[in-house]
Specification:
Blueprint (H helix, E strand, L loop, with lengths): L2 H6 L8 E3 L5 E11 L5 E8 L5 E6 L4 E3 L2 E3 L4 H5 L9 E2 L1 H11 L6 E2 L8 E2 L8 E3 H7 L115 H7 L12
Length: 273
C-alpha cells in the first residue's frame, strides 16, 4: 500500500506492526486518529511497554506502509517515552500540542531540533484536533459494533488439603484361660501274698518320688490381620459464581442539538461520542 492509499484507507492501518527508521519493532497499531478538519489520519497508537501494556501516540508524518508493516519516522525510544495519553475517541488540542513538542514537530510541518531528531521537512497535516477512526466513520452513517463481556466459567484443579494414613502402637490387657496339670502324692498300700518274694528287714528306711506340675508360659508373635488404604472419591456439587461484566450502550446525538455542541472555536466537540 502506498502512502496515498494509507491516508485514503486509514482503517487498513489497524493491526499493522510499527517499526522505527532502524527497523526495530515498536509494537502493534491499535487505533488511528483522524484530523477533525481534513479527515486525514494524523496519529496512531502503538502498543508499547512491558508486554504491550501501554498505548503510545505516534505521528503519521513521514510514515509509510509496507505490506503488514508501518514504518514511522521516529525511533522506538522516543515513542516509548511519549507522554501518556488516554487512548479514547478524541485527542484534545492541548494533548496534541504536548505530543508535538515531544516529537520535536511544530504545527506547520517542520521538525525542530530536539528530542525528535535533526531539523528537516516532514509531511504534518497540521495541529487540528484528532478523532479516532471509529468515531468518524460512525458519523458518516456506518454501523457501530456494540460489544459486551460474557461470563465464561470453567473449573480448575487445585490442592485443597492432605489426608494422611498412619499406624500407631497401643497396649491393651488381654485375659485368657489355659488348663495346667500337676502331680500329687498319694499312699498306696498292697498286701504281700504268700509266695511273693520280699525281704523282711526290720529297721528305718525312706523313699521319694519327683513331682511335676505345668505352669503357663506366655510368648508373643506378630501376625497380619488387616490391610488398610486411602481412596479418593469425587463428589460434584453446585456452587454459585458471581462477577461483574461490562457492556456497551449505544447513544445518539439529536441533529437539532448538534450545532449547539459545536459552537465555539469551530473545531468540534473534543469529548467522547
Amino acid at each position: 500500500m502506498s502512502t496515498g492509499d494509507m491516508f485514503n484507507r486509514p482503517e487498513g492501518l489497524k493491526g499493522l506492526v510499527a517499526y522505527d527508521p532502524e527497523g526495530e519493532k515498536i509494537g502493534g497499531v491499535e487505533q488511528v486518529y483522524l484530523a477533525d478538519d481534513s479527515g486525514r489520519p494524523e496519529w496512531v497508537t502503538v502498543k508499547t511497554g512491558l508486554f504491550g501494556t501501554k498505548e503510545s501516540f505516534v505521528p503519521l508524518a513521514g510514515a509509510r506502509q509496507d505490506s503488514e508493516a508501518l514504518h514511522v519516522a521516529y525511533p522506538k525510544s522516543l515513542v516509548k517515552d511519549a507522554p501518556r495519553m488516554d487512548a479514547e475517541e478524541h485527542l484534545d488540542v492541548d494533548a496534541e500540542r504536548e505530543l508535538y513538542r515531544h516529537y520535536g514537530v511544530d504545527g506547520h510541518g517542520t521538525r525542530t531540533p530536539g528530542p525528535g531528531g535533526a531539523a528537516g521537512s516532514v509531511d504534518v497535516p497540521g495541529n487540528a484536533t484528532g478523532t479516532d477512526v471509529h468515531g468518524r466513520y460512525a458519523e458518516d452513517g456506518e454501523s457501530i459494533v456494540r460489544s459486551e463481556e460474557r461470563l465464561r466459567v470453567g473449573t480448575e484443579n487445585e490442592q485443597v488439603g492432605r489426608a494422611r494414613l498412619r499406624k500407631v502402637v497401643v497396649t491393651e490387657d488381654v485375659s485368657t484361660t489355659v488348663p495346667v496339670s500337676h502331680e500329687e502324692v498319694r499312699v498306696v498300700r498292697e498286701p504281700i501274698r504268700e509266695g511273693d518274694r520280699a525281704r523282711a528287714d526290720i529297721g528305718e528306711a525312706e523313699t521319694e518320688v519327683t513331682l511335676h506340675a505345668e505352669r503357663p508360659v506366655v510368648r508373643k508373635e506378630a501376625v497380619p490381620v488387616e490391610r488398610v488404604r486411602l481412596e479418593t472419591e469425587k463428589v460434584t456439587e453446585q456452587q454459585e459464581v458471581s462477577d461483574t461484566v461490562r457492556k456497551e450502550q449505544i447513544q445518539y446525538d439529536d441533529a437539532t442539538r448538534k450545532d449547539e455542541r459545536r459552537r465555539g472555536d469551530g473545531r468540534g466537540d473534543r469529548g467522547r461520542r
